[in-house]
Structures are given as C-alpha cells and as structure tokens.
C-alpha cells in the first residue's frame, strides 16, 4: 500500500452498544477542525451487505440521504453535510455490498490472475483503496472515517482489519478514536467503566490500540472516572473525552471543544494549531435556546411517523428555518393511515402548517390526499416534497377538475387519468436499486411566481429521488383552474414545482430541498414556509 504523506486520517469506531452517535461525533470533529482552517471531509463505511440503503425500509435504516452526484447514502452523510457545510459524493459512503460487488466484478474480469480471492488481502485492499480514493477527490488535510456497527459485530471485521493495516502503513498520519458508553446506575449512584474497558480490550484483540476515547454518558462524570479509564485503557487522561447527553445535536461540537478534543487531535497529527472561529455556530445555538419565542405547529403527514429518523432531513430543515425566523417549530406527527374524513379536522386543526414528505407505495395515500385537501380548502400553508407534489396534483385533479379516477400509475397502473406517470426512461427498468432519477438537476423558475420571489433567481439546482413525474397532458387543465407550474426542467419536459393561486402558501416540488438545508443557512423553501406560517399564526392570535 502506497504511503500518504500529507492527508491525515481519523478512524472512529463504536463499542458497548449501537446508536451512541458516532456520526454526530464525527460531524462535530469536522466542525471543530474546519473552524481551525483545515480542509476536512468525512466517510461512512457501513458493514451491511446491501449495496446502498436505497431499497431498505426506513424503519430498518432511517431516511435515505441523496448526494449531489446521485448516490443513495446513509443518513449520517446528512449530518456530515449539515455540520461541515460541504457537499459530499458517492466516495463518502461505502458499504460491504459495494466492496464485495467490486471484488467479484474484478474476479469475473480476471483481474486477480487466477489467484484465490480472499477477505485478506482482496476485500481489505478494496476498502483501503476507497480510503485512498477520498484523498484524490480533493486536497483534504483531514479525512474522518466512521466505521458503522459495533465492535464485536462479525460484519465489521473486514473494515476493522483494513483500518488496522492502513494505520500500520501510515502510522504518522493516523489516529484511532473509540466511542463508548459510560453508564450511570441510579441504584448505586455510580458511573461504570467496565463496559468501556471491555470494549477497548476487544478492539485491542483485533490489533487496534485506540488513541482517543470518547465517552457517552447521561451526564457529566468526575475526573476520577477519566483517570480510571485512562489507566486501564493505556491512554492519557487528556485523551479521555467526556460527551454527555445534549438537548440538541448542534451542542455537541461545543461540548467537545470544552474537552479540548480539537487541540488533542491537532497535536497527535502534528498539524498547525490555529484559533477556532465558531461564531456562526454559537449564534445558531443561542437562537435555538432563546426563551419566549413564538411557537408554530407543523404537521408532518406520513406513514413512517413512528420513527422520526425516517424524515430526518425534513425535521432538521424545519428546525433550521425556525431558527432563521426566531421561532420554535413543534412537529406534530400525523399517521396518514389513520387519517380519515371523519377525523381530519380534529387531527389537523392544531397544525398551522402541513408538510407531506417523500415516500413510495400506496399505503397511507388516502390519508395524505385528505390532508392535502384540508390544506387547500382551509388555506393552511402546505409544502409537498416529491410524493407530496404527486399527492397535491392528484387531490386537485379529483376534487377541482372532477377527474374521479385521477391517480399515479405507481398506485394504480390502469387508472383512466394518470396524472402522475413513469418517467419515460423508467418504463422498462426491472432493477430497483440506484435506478431512479437521482442527484442534482437544474430547474428553471417562472418569473412573477411565488417560487421566483422565494429563490430570487431564474435557475436553481436541487436534488431528486423519484421515478414518477407529472403528466404534461394535463397541464392546460390544471392551469385553467388555478395551478401555476412555477418550476420546470430547462427543456420544459418535466414539471418541478407547482403552486396554487389564491392561497397564502401552497407549494409542492418534485425535488428534495431538505437535503441542502444547513443550521445557519436555512433552505429558501423551508424558510418561506415557516415565515408565512408564523406570520399567519401571529395574525390570527
């Protein structure tokens, strides 16, 4: 393996239990190191055998995040982008499925010259190649790589072996960080370090000695706990970093800063120390914790409402927009399968704004149509995202155009009025994974539209994830009854945004604007949606 002379590498693993927040810790390190003037990117290595999360149920894996270049990725990449304010690409998310697919493709081509294909060296070399590939993507000072899963998982072993080898080959340029749990037992009133000790021991058995231990806990623990962990895990007390529960994930960089983790990393990697500039970050935190702010209720109508991570980027985008407008946004989860004409008013009248997010399949569609009708008739601000645009169009066709059988061919292939239909290049595809219209595409905005007022430009680029589009055969009917097609593909063939005349704020888009929202750079559509909702709520008080 060729040595890397300039780029520095931080590998993050997790132990004791899953869901400790490796992604948030990694993203927070990105914030701190970038604030010191270093060029940083992050990678996520996921050990599952799916090629990507695109075909996985959101209850299995949370939302699917989409990059500018059209890669369906783990939701942690959303955290990475939001925290470091950088657009990532497909090189930033690697799965076991991708690695094994590439290894097998090489074997089929004869690239291994008849050798027996094995986990070591072929799979591990492929993993290391992906680490190296990130260095070629840009001139990064630091690459932070998160290894998914928990120490002890069989699936993670090839990745752990790969980073062990990589660290050995590039000793002066690598550090290893391990995230563990330090539980507090109420019954004895004690913090327990044994889980951390055992986790580090298991890591050592693999051949990895951690350099920094980040300890998740329900609350701050005393210095003696740090000293004990340091003694038994062969690190300095200053290398034991406390990371207690925070009210907001956006506080984590500040917590880690107080523990001097950025200074420790810079010293270990022999990089230049510089003063941090976290002014924008701190300003955002001050806003979200500001007291006595007005509150608005936004109803999210979906079928995966039992797991908020299914719509993670949407909820974060709403928070960013709320902060931009100095208000609190309370999210009211509405299960679309339980929404009926008989209970719609009771369910939605407490919502000052209604949002229908993206999704697939016909389950819960009737409830979403009811919600869109309610928003249109009650003049409640409405934001439809991808499927939310399809829902708005179908509802309008049925109840305003009197096309009773209006539908999407996704839900009823034989409907007489296919308002929403397959994209032309999608009709003959058989494979589901990675075959949709994915990634960033341009959109031309109609002048004198609400959309143009929001974006203040004629052309935008937004990220997509869909197979179905508005059927242009119905455009004239819609326009004649008050729909404005305010956003279209540059060639005019694809509808990107619709808005409703004579409504305070009713906009539905084919793309996913939530993927481009940032903590202190709220996305224009979400910003306008929250601003209008707040204005109407205040006016009606």
Structure commentary:
- The radius of gyration is 25 Å and the shape is globular.
- The protein is built from 18 helices and 23 strands.
- The strands form 5 sheets. A 9-stranded mixed beta sheet has the order 13-12-14-15-23-22-21-18-19, sandwiched between helices. A 7-stranded parallel beta sheet has the order 5-2-6-1-7-10-11, sandwiched between helices. Strands 16-17-20 form a 3-stranded mixed beta sheet, with helices on one face.
- By secondary structure, the protein is α/β, with parallel strands linked by helices.
- The protein folds into 2 domains: 8-284, P-loop containing nucleotide triphosphate hydrolases (Rossmann fold); 292-540, 3-Layer(aba) Sandwich (Rossmann fold).
- The longest helix is centred in the first third of the chain and has 19 residues, at 119-137.
Write the layout of secondary structure elements.
Layout: E1 8-14, H1 22-35, E2 40-46, H2 58-61, E3 65-66, E4 72-73, H3 76-84, E5 93-95, H4 96-109, H5 119-137, E6 142-147, H6 157-169, E7 174-181, E8 184-185, E9 190-191, H7 194-206, E10 212-217, H8 223-233, E11 240-244, H9 252-258, H10 261-268, H11 279-288, E12 295-302, H12 312-324, E13 328-335, H13 344-348, E14 353-356, H14 365-378, E15 382-385, H15 387-399, E16 406-408, E17 417-422, E18 437-445, H16 450-455, E19 459-466, E20 468-470, H17 475-480, E21 483-488, E22 495-500, E23 506-509, H18 524-540
Helix pairs in contact: 1-3, 1-9, 4-5, 5-6, 12-18, 14-15
């Amino acid at each position: 393996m060729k040595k890397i002379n300039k780029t520095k590498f931080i590998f993050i693993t997790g132990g004791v239990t899953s869901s400790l927040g490796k992604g948030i810790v990694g993203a927070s390190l990105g914030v701190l190191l970038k604030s010191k003037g270093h060029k940083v990117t992050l990678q996520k290595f996921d050990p599952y055998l799916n090629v990507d999360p695109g075909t996985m149920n959101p209850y299995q894996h949370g939302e699917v995040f989409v990059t500018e270049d059209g890669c369906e990725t783990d939701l942690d990449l959303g955290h990475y982008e939001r925290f470091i304010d950088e657009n990532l690409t497909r090189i930033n998310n690697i799965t076991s499925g991708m690695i094994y697919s590439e290894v097998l493709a090489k074997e089929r081509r004869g690239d291994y010259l008849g050798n027996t294909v094995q986990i070591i060296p072929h799979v591990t070399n492929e993993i290391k190649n992906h680490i190296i590939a990130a260095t070629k993507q840009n001139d990064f000072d630091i690459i932070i790589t998160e290894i998914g899963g928990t120490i002890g998982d069989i699936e993670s072993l090839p990745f752990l072996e790969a980073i062990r080898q990589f660290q050995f080959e590039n000793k002066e340029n690598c550090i290893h960080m391990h995230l563990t749990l330090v539980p507090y037992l109420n019954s004895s009133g004690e913090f327990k370090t044994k889980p951390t000790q055992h986790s580090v021991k298991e890591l050592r058995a693999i051949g990895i000695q951690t350099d920094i231990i980040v300890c998740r806990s329900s609350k701050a623990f005393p210095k003696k706990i740090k000293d004990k962990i340091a003694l038994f895990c062969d690190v300095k007390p200053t290398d034991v970093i406390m990371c207690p529960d925070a009210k907001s994930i956006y506080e984590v960089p500040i917590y880690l800063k107080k523990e001097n983790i950025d200074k420790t990393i810079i010293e270990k990697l022999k990089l230049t120390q510089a003063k941090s500039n976290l002014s924008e970050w701190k300003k955002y935190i001050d806003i979200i914790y500001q007291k006595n702010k007005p509150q608005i209720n936004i109803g999210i109508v979906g079928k995966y409402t039992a797991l908020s991570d299914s719509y993670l980027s949407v909820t974060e985008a709403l928070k960013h927009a709320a902060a931009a407008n100095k208000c609190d946004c309370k999210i009211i989860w509405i299960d679309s399968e339980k929404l009926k004409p008989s209970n719609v008013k009771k369910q939605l009248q407490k919502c000052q704004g209604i949002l229908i997010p993206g999704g697939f399949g016909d389950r819960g569609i009737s409830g979403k149509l009811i919600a869109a009708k309610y928003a249109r008739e009650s003049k409640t601000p409405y934001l439809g995202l991808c499927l939310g645009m399809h829902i708005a169009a179908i509802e309008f066709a049925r109840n305003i155009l009197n096309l009773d059988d209006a539908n999407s061919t996704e839900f009823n292939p034989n409907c007489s009025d296919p308002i929403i239909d397959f994209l032309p290049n999608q009709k003959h595809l058989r494979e589901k994974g990675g075959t949709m219209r994915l990634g960033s595409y341009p959109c031309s905005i109609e002048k004198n539209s609400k959309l143009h007022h929001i974006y203040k430009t004629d052309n935008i680029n937004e990220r997509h994830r869909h197979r179905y589009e508005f059927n242009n055969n119905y455009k004239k009917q819609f326009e004649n009854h008050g729909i404005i097609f305010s956003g279209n593909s540059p060639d005019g063939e694809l509808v990107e945004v619709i808005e409703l005349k004579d409504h305070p704020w009713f906009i539905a888009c084919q793309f996913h604007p939530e993927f481009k929202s940032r903590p202190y750079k709220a996305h224009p559509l979400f910003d306008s949606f929250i601003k209008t909702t707040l204005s109407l709520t205040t006016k009606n008080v």
